[in-house]
Description:
- By secondary structure, the chain is mainly alpha-helical.
- The chain has helices at residues 2-29, 44-62, 68-90, 95-107, 112-115, 117-137, 143-161, 165-185, 194-213, 218-228, 230-245, 258-264, 269-292, 299-315, 328-337; strands at residues 32-33, 40-41.
- It has 15 helices and two strands.
- A two-stranded antiparallel sheet has the order 1-2.
Amino acid sequence: MLYGILAATSALLLAAVxxxxxxxxxLRLGIVDRRWRRPLPLSGGVAVVAATCLVAVVxxxxxxxxxxxxxxxLLVAGGAVALLGxxxxxxxxxxxxxxxxxxxxxxxVVPYEDTGVPAGLLAVGWIVFVALGFKALDHADGLAGTVxxxxxxxxxxxxxxxxxxxxxxxxxxxxxxxxxxxxHNWHPARVGLGACGALFTGFVLASAAVTTRAxxxxxxxxxxxxxxxxxxxxxxxxxxxxxRLSGRPLLRAAPDHLAHRLRRLGLxxxxxxxxxxxxxxxxxxxxxxxxxxxxxxxxxxxxGAGALIVVLGxxxxxxxxxxxxxxxxxxxxxxxxxx
Length: 339
């Protein structure tokens, strides 16, 4: 217990310091998100990954909290996914490579001896879905980090209930590292999570949840996994439906996400992130209670119904189109041309 608190505190402080220190090098190297009015450095993911892995490895090395073979394999696979995401942050990477690389890593961590091969393959697909879903959540200040913290606490509670101490410590360390990152990512964000941190976060959370629920009945297990990541699933479904119905390519960036449409309703950036964080907390709470057996498994149906209502309601709201940012020099040229 004492080591868990010390590890979480260390991860929080380390992630906060690293996020601040890596911001300027990311700007100089051009590792930025240029979708906004000013380049946003994407060094936060490296800080989160480094803080999480370093604290977890030190605990294993000191023998205070042995991770075990499964958690160690999960951490290595998560590091590989983070490296793939870092490459995507530095240069453009086609989506199929992100999907394929994440799927290979997921296939290495699924406990097939407990799930069976058919259910294990479904788990691989779900891990990829959640990892890419977290990458998509990194479109709004503080959103991916907030949902990640809430989900990590929920998955960690399930792991602790199954006496998976190493996995529970890893998830608490990840939650603390994301909290340290959020100190710099809350609106107005000074640093972004990037594909590196988002893919790592989603991959570790989804893989940990699968490991925790391994051996359970397929339907009940799937319900708990959905409840733990309801906001991620709702965001992906909303984007897919919106782009399909409007005839736009699925992979073309556009303000179709949950936070974008909530902003159209008048919420502030902070308000949208808080509201979606509360939604994630509600789903996670139901998932944890079902996992513990304190409420019936049908409780996840209420989470699914709520998510569906939100998606259908927000689908009717037209998102505000991004305005193209024009430099003062170009503006002057246009004025001259227009006489």
